[in-house]
Amino acid sequence: MAHFFLRAAGVGRRTAFVAASAGSAVLLSGAGMAYATSCKEERDKHKILIVGGGSGGLAVAAQLQIKGEKDVAVIEPSENHYYQPLWTLVGGGGLPRQQEPTTREGRHALGCPLAQGQEAPVLVHNMGKVMRGEKPTAVYDGYTSCPLITVRTEGGREGGRGYSSLLLAEFKYGGEVAETFGRVIDQAEPRWAFLQLKKHVFPFAYWELFLRGRWFGTRGVIPPSFE
């Protein structure tokens, strides 16, 4: 995508572009700080310690507090929280090494807020179960989303400089398709309406709802029930 826009602007026509990564996936997300301290005495006062104050960490902390858990601490070295508009282009990251549906163990996929919104309630519910000495019952199906922005074409050639539509790809563990709007429209086709969701709805849901623990992925503002 960056290569296309640089070429459209007359930059880099004789330049080779190389994308390199040290791992199997790249996550273009920033981090935030809900509460941070390096004092061991302070940390010992909290029953729950969340390492990492990115979007997932903040959402889990917020949902725990909504459920009445007050002793929650988030450790995050950065004082800033960034929202990268194109961070979901990296997709959902890699499949977890161990697909543990209760989210209690295993390495889970790095995903966009839509995916984290699905996973956070499962983690919060099962954490409460385990802390009470009970068996975790909520299950995370591995849902992840990959909104792919597309550009205009003219006669099969690249043309224009603006985004025109978006392909909303959604999957579960094992690559199973999990389309939110699949019963109404064909999500295999890039659509202008999905681009508007990305531009206008998702940022609002992220800042005003998700980070406050009130956005639950494809369920929107309706919290899931695991009982």
Overview of this protein structure:
With 227 residues, this protein is an alpha+beta fold. The protein has a domain of 144 residues. Helix content is 26%, strand content 15%. It is built from 5 helices and 4 strands; from the N terminus they run H-H-E-H-E-H-E-E-H. A two-stranded parallel ribbon has the order 1-2. Helix 3 packs across helix 4. The longest helix has 19 residues. It starts with a helix and ends in an 18-residue tail after the last helix. About 23% of the residues have low confidence.
Average pLDDT, all residues = 68
Task: Calculate the terminal CA-CA distance, rounded to whole Å.
Answer: 44 Å
Could you tell me the number of beta strands?
4
Strand content: 5-15%
- Strand order, sheet with most strands: 1-2
Number of helices: 5
Q: Based on CA inertia axes, which overall geometry fits?
A: globular
- Give me the Rg, rounded: 20 Å
Helix/strand structural class: alpha+beta
Query: In sequence order, what are the helices and strands, one letter per element?
Result: HHEHEHEEH
Largest beta-sheet details: 2 strands, parallel
Low-confidence stretches: 15-44, 83-99, 106-110
